[in-house]
Every structure is written in structure tokens, then in C-alpha cells.
Amino acid sequence: MPYIILEGPQMTKEQKSKLVKEFTDTAAYTLNMPKDAFTVLIKESNPDNVGVGGELLSERAKK
Description:
alpha+beta, Macrophage Migration Inhibitory Factor, two-stranded parallel ribbon
């Protein structure tokens, strides 16, 4: 059973639903496998928990 994992920003339920559908459709088509074979995991990261260039994303967004 293939897993598709996305780590990214916080999203709306509608955005998550669209991503899950499109990732699954594309992977099933590309790998010639049934859609039911795929599991999609979304890991949302709070900007306070992510650092880039030595600075929290939440601080960078304020600039």
C-alpha cells in the first residue's frame, strides 16, 4: 500500500480534500494502480514550529 505524505502549512478542509483527490488520482494513473491502494497523510506545521535560516516562520511573516 503506497503512502503519499505532504508536510506543509495549515490548510482548510476544502484544500485538504482537493489535495487528497488530486494526489490519489495522479498516483493511481501514473502507477496504474487502483485508487483504493493509496493512503494520503497530511502533516500540518504551525509557523511557530518551523525555522528557516535561523528564524521562525511566524517571525518572518511579520516582516
